[in-house]
Amino acid sequence: MKTLSLVVPVYGAPDLVRALLDAVPALARVAASCGFELVETLLVDDGSARPLADELAVRGGVPAGVRVIRNGRNRGKGYSVRRGALEARGGWVLMSDVDQSAPLTEFVRLAAHADAWMVCGSRYGRPGMPMRRRLLSRLFHALVWLTGVRGVQDTQCGFKLFRMDVMRGVFARQRVERFAFDVELVRLVQKEHGDLVEVPVLWKGGARSSLNVLRDAPRMLYDLLFRIR
């Protein structure tokens, strides 16, 4: 069986972590039906005010099959995903947001394309996205187009599968540490002529987001136009 690591960047939100850990057994069952063995869940604590390991300790400790690694300070989602992917033991890495905007069992849709370097879950055309976020998404996609990325309608969905025998080198070259890191990964894969697939997934929307438009938009714009482009 192929080996799979689940990598989840975390900043605070211990209640969302507990809900995600409750959903991991369902992921393991779905993965097994697709020929994958879930070998670990890797939680990357991005400098939370109270360490995630301490939060889990007061609730019975870190469950079996779960590892927690902690960044010394808040570095960003991109840094956390890169660190988790490079430290993962599985031959494939599934990246998920902690709020499970895409349910973990949607892995079955990505697994069908596991030979690709990178499989991007996509919310494109799915109902349920608030109008404000839909407009921001379209604006962001226009900026992504300026970086040279083509053929991917939703670069920012937090549900992706990476084939690590080829993606390890791509992650090693990743430099963008915050929210535009997905675009950089797509750009690097396309420059290497690697296989990239976009797959529609169920998207139910998270109750919370660590993205702050006023705070993060200028940095995302800089990363897109002056670093990735």
Describe this structure in words.
The longest helix has 20 residues. It contains 8 helices and 7 strands, in the order βαβαβαβαβαβααβα. Strand 2, helix 2 and strand 3 form a beta-alpha-beta unit. By secondary structure, it is an alpha/beta fold. The chain has a 7-stranded mixed β-sheet with strand order 3-2-1-4-6-5-7, with helices on both faces. The protein is 41% helix and 19% strand.
Largest sheet: 7 strands, mixed
Sheet with most strands: strand arrangement: 3-2-1-4-6-5-7
Indicate the overall shape: globular
C-alpha-based Rg, rounded: 17 Å
Alpha carbon gap, first and last residue? 39 Å
Please give the share of residues in helix: 40-55%
Q: Low-confidence parts, pLDDT < 50 over ≥5 residues?
A: none
Total DSSP E strands: 7
**Mean pLDDT across every amino acid position:** 87
List keywords for this structure.
229 residues, 8 helices, single chain, globular
Question: What's this model, at a glance?
Answer:
Helices cover 41% and strands 19% of the residues. With 229 residues, the chain is α/β, with parallel strands linked by helices. The longest helix is centred in the first third of the chain and has 20 residues, at 14-33.
